[in-house]
Amino acid sequence: MSIPLYATPRTVRRDRPDGSVLLESAHPLRPHGTRLAEMLRTWAAVDPGHPLVAERGPDGAWRRRTYGEALAAANAIGQALLDRGLSAERPLLLLSGNSIGHLLMTLGALTAGVPVVPISVAYSLQSRDHARIRAIDALVRPGAVYTEDAEPYRAAVSAMSGGAVQVAAVGGPAEHSLEALLATAPGAAVEAAYESVGGDTVAKILFTSGSTGMPKGVINTHGMLCANQQMMRQAWPFLAEERPVLVDWLPWSHTFGGNHNMNMVLANGGTIYIDEGRPAPALFGKSLANYREVSPTLAFNVPAGYAHLVPALERDRDLAERFLARTRLVFNAAAALPPALRARLEALAREVTGRDIPVTGSWGTTETSPAATSAHFDYADARCIGVPLPGVTVKLVPASGDTYEIRLRGVSVTPGYHLRPDLTEAAFDDEGFYCPGDAAGFADPADPDAGLLFRGRLAEDFKLSTGTFVHVGALRTALLSAAPVLADAVIAGEGRDKACALAWLNAAEAELVLGEPPAADGETVHSGRLAAHLAAVLAGFNAGAGSSARIERLLILARPPGLDAGEITDKGYVNQRQVLAQRADLVELLYADPAPAPVITPEARVS
């Protein structure tokens, strides 16, 4: 390729008298647009027949919409929304998941300067009281609510105040159907609304998962999101040469799927194939079927997704060849990819394609559009989150030892939370830096271009009763790397004398190692063979390690983390503290003496 994969990082470090450190890219942020819908219009003019989005139809075949078709739909929907009274103060609420209809409604709203508010499907379909839906409805006062199919969402819509027009592709009022909106003739009003959109115009209000209390609405402006895509284009210059193709399941109600990935497709004239699968045993087969038909150029996923994908690719050479044929890089987010899993993925890529396919990642939050740092270089430590992107200033505030609290300022950072000035004030320090509560450290204190290492959430870290500090993120990643049969884990031990873990099995890996996945016994999973295997893993893992780097006991959970209970987001990130609180009885089981049968220790033997 004539254009390199990665830009060369050049990071400027400034040490301050108070011990804090400022990091910035030496590369200035280049000019960029300030309207998301302008991306659609630009590519529709360049190549109107190029596919923008595809999804499976009822017959299993791919249904596609081109850039030209999407532009016509966006103009019609934008006019229809204005006709129904939507505005900057009366946004569009989207309850259902990723679909062509969801995307067209979003593009229509963005064209008309109407904020979009995509909501996690779990708030509608897995909640009994719909408390979060009611709270969001009261806060944003939507002018319309969209569902792909009205029937499954009827209870959620009924829980709302009733002030919003209901729009649906199937089953809703005929006069407000998606078909009716698409049939609207765009006029001067929608064009005037488009021209009035600027960098400070609110594009989205994204509600974070809300580990405690009700979720908060993060303001995402058009300028923030456009700037973030320019940042990524400078870090990944190959995007200017090769239009991306994604096969992606990540929900658009989250910033990773909806901003990072979907906007990258729009910004670079690419195509997204909507993957109806998920990194769960019952649904992952759908993802594999999609990979057999479509070779992506970029692979985006979370660690749980790669934990399912890698063993599947190792077992099926044809699938591996198809998946990796055009892949330029593999991207991981939400949590560190366990080093052993990353090594297997890199080795598989070399074996199948004869070339190295970089495995990379970045760091950011809903409040940062999301990418704030990027590891656009080779790195050895799986915790590496890279260096600041152009236009972002990172402030590192000393926390403990060689760990810093990481703070952000720049054009891609949110101005605050919707109608919550109290939350906005609390989220920024006196210099205007956003404070997400995450910890980081230098990969090499003498070389800022070596990047930062993610050290986890400051709120998740704890001290043992001995006073020893436990960095949960690093310990969890190390455990998952040492034990591929584990899909995920949370670390317990605050105020106790040792660190222990609750974990979930990776069914595919467990079958490879044990011959067959062990059966559940109530809330836990236990078998002699599993206990023996993990006992040996723990013994090796703990050898020579200090108390903060050891896992003394392990309990395998039968019930997956609950999305509605706040234990996990629908992009696969496990909330450490929520799991420990929801399963306090199992935490107590970990620390019972003597250790009961389900609890695995390094001294366990086959029962």
Q: What is the CATH architecture descriptor of the domain at 462-590?
A: 2-Layer Sandwich
Unreliable spans: none
Number of helices: 20
The gyration radius over C-alpha positions equals: 24 Å
**Large-scale geometry:** globular
Proportion of residues in helical segments:
25-40%
CATH topology of the domain at 462-590: GMP Synthetase, Chain A, domain 3
Strand order of the largest sheet: 1-2-18-19-20-21-17-16-15-14-13
For the record, what CATH class of the domain at 462-590 applies?
Answer: Alpha Beta
> What gap, in angstroms, lies between the N and C termini?
57 Å
By DSSP, the count of extended strands is 28
User: Mind summarizing the main beta sheet?
Assistant: 11 strands, mixed
The whole-number mean of residue pLDDT values reads 94
Give the CATH H-level superfamily of the domain at 462-590.
Answer: ANL, C-terminal domain
Derived from helix and strand composition plus strand pairing, the structural class reads alpha/beta
Strand content: 15-25%
How is this structure best described in words?
The structure is a single chain. With 607 residues, the protein is of the alpha/beta class. It has a domain at 462-590: ANL, C-terminal domain (GMP Synthetase, Chain A, domain 3). Helix content is 33%, strand content 23%. The chain has 20 helices and 28 strands. The protein has an 11-stranded mixed β-sheet with strand order 1-2-18-19-20-21-17-16-15-14-13. Strands 4-3-12-11 form a 4-stranded mixed β-sheet, sandwiched between helices. A hairpin with a 2-residue loop joins strand 26 and strand 27 (524-525). Helix 1 crosses helix 2 (67-83), helix 2 packs across helix 3 and helix 19 packs across helix 20 (584-590). The radius of gyration is 24 Å and the shape is globular. 53% of the residues are buried. The model has no long low-confidence stretch (mean pLDDT 94).
